[in-house]
Design a protein that fits this description.
49% of the residues lie in helices and 22% in strands. With 309 residues, the protein is an alpha+beta fold. Strands 3, 4, 5, 7, 8, 9, 11, 12 and 13 form a nine-stranded antiparallel sheet that branches. Strands 1-2 form a two-stranded antiparallel sheet. It has a two-stranded antiparallel sheet with strand order 6-10. The protein is elongated, with a radius of gyration of 35 Å.
């Protein structure tokens, strides 16, 4: 009998706790619903919460994404939680790289097929940007390596592999006018900076035997592996220089882009002493530039292709 009474009391207590819990939950939901219905934001507040500027907020208003209402005093527009939710969805699209207009189209008009198409195109854009950033990181690290080598080396010449290079001849004084490349042809190389830069070509006979100021052929060049990473296919006539063993030295071309023969004497002596044979024209690729006494000074890596005699 005592156990039965205890059991009944326990059941009554459990029912009472359940009732209190349900009552609290109902009250919370009711209060939350009231707050949700009454919660309004001014444009400054919803701008901070959504991350869009006031002008961006107005853009979404005009596009029909959100529908603010006039407050009681009809002085300020008020935005609801539903407006905020829509803006946060658009913010997600913006952070994925979509434009404001694309965000509107994806939220209001796109079906699943169209949404997939938008996302696929953006994924390709992000992949392209990622490849460019990876190439840039590799380029910067290579510059650091080159600077370290320049600071630490005790010799003027170093034997090392030159990466494969694609070279484009540019117009220079003395060339026929019909050889002047078109602006689009030149601009597509400029757009590939910092991977494409000035590169002078020094013919073999001038490199080995000429004296005084050595005339060069003006051009621009890009390493082949960067060209592949960037998906760059240049227009016009180009010349391909494969990866090869080279003697590399640092030179200082003049403002007229000539090379003083005194600057290649040490390379000539090094090549002869080491029993190497020059196999093709040298490429003078800009390494870094600085301004001294108001004059632009250029320093190049001169790559001289060689093989053992």
């Amino acid at each position: 009998m005592i156990d039965k009474i205890r059991h009944l009391k326990g059941c009554r207590f459990l029912c009472l706790r359940t009732f209190v819990t349900l009552t609290k939950l109902y009250t919370y939901c009711k209060v939350y619903t009231q707050i949700r219905c009454k919660m309004k934001f001014k444009i400054g507040e919803i701008s901070k919460l959504s991350g869009f500027s006031p002008s961006g907020i107005r853009f979404f208003e005009e596009a029909g994404v959100i529908s603010p209402v006039r407050g009681k005093n009809e002085k300020y527009r008020e935005y609801s939680l539903n407006d905020l939710q829509r803006l946060l969805i658009c913010r997600k699209y913006r952070e994925c790289g979509f434009s404001l207009q694309e965000s509107v189209e994806m939220l209001l008009y796109a079906n699943l097929t169209e949404l997939k198409e938008h996302i696929s195109i953006q994924a390709l854009c992000v992949e392209k940007q990622l490849n460019e950033k990876q190439a840039l990181l590799q380029h910067l690290n290579q510059q650091l390596t080159d600077i370290d080598a320049l600071e630490q080396t005790e010799t003027c010449c170093t034997v090392m592999q030159m990466p494969a290079i694609v070279w484009r001849k540019l117009w220079q004084p003395g060339d026929a006018e019909e050889k002047i490349p078109t602006f689009p042809d030149v601009y597509e190389w400029i757009e590939r900076g910092p991977f494409a830069d000035s590169c002078l070509l020094l013919p073999v006979d001038r490199l080995l035997h000429a004296s005084g100021e050595l005339e060069t052929l003006w051009g621009t060049a890009i390493e082949a592996h960067y060209m592949k990473k960037l998906g760059f296919t240049p227009k016009g006539q180009t010349q391909y220089f494969p990866e090869c063993l080279c003697v590399r030295t640092v030179i200082n071309p003049s403002g007229a882009l000539t090379i003083a023969s005194e600057q290649v004497v040490s390379a000539r002596q090094f090549i002869a002493k080491s029993g190497y044979r020059v196999t093709g024209p040298a490429l003078s690729r800009i390494f870094y530039s600085t301004v001294k006494n108001g004059e632009l000074i250029r320093y190049d890596h001169l790559w001289i292709p060689i093989e053992q005699s």
